[in-house]
Design a protein that fits this description.
alpha+beta; three-stranded antiparallel beta sheet; 13% strand
Length: 135
């Protein structure tokens, strides 16, 4: 995660797909964790908001208004997590997983790969963090 220089830690964060941000310099591992959770929360929110926008458009165009309404409801509720902790967001997503699955594209959809490669790993990561599997 980082290198320690004269009592400071230098960090770079990498995102799935190869994006890297940093370097950041922090005083200790506690600050490093806070920064990691901050950027992780923002990454998850950005991915989910974009995906839900796509789902709302696709479901509305397909005349699946109930599913589109659920996607819109999820998107509206995500706004409440912009200034909260990563762990509250993770807990929310775990509790809303059935709704997320309800609005997800089917396996034959051209949008399924994005869902499979981006959204499902986010849900798995949230479960692992909640269970303490990821340090």
């Amino acid at each position: 995660m980082g290198e320690q220089y004269s009592n400071y830690i230098k960090l770079n964060f990498s995102y799935p797909g190869g994006g890297i941000i940093g370097p950041f310099t922090v005083a200790d591992m506690s600050e490093a964790k806070r920064l990691l959770y901050f950027h992780t929360r923002n990454y998850i929110l950005d991915k989910l908001k974009g995906w839900l926008n796509q789902r709302i458009r696709a479901l509305t165009a397909a005349g699946e208004y109930l599913r589109a309404d659920k996607a819109n409801e999820l998107q509206q509720r995500l706004i409440n997590f912009t200034d909260t902790s990563f762990f509250r967001l993770a807990d929310f997503l775990i509790k809303q997983e059935s709704k997320i699955l309800f609005v997800a594209p089917g396996q034959k959809s051209r949008n399924y790969n994005y869902y499979h490669d981006n959204i499902l790993p986010i849900l798995e990561y949230c479960r692992e963090m909640k269970e303490g599997v990821v340090a």
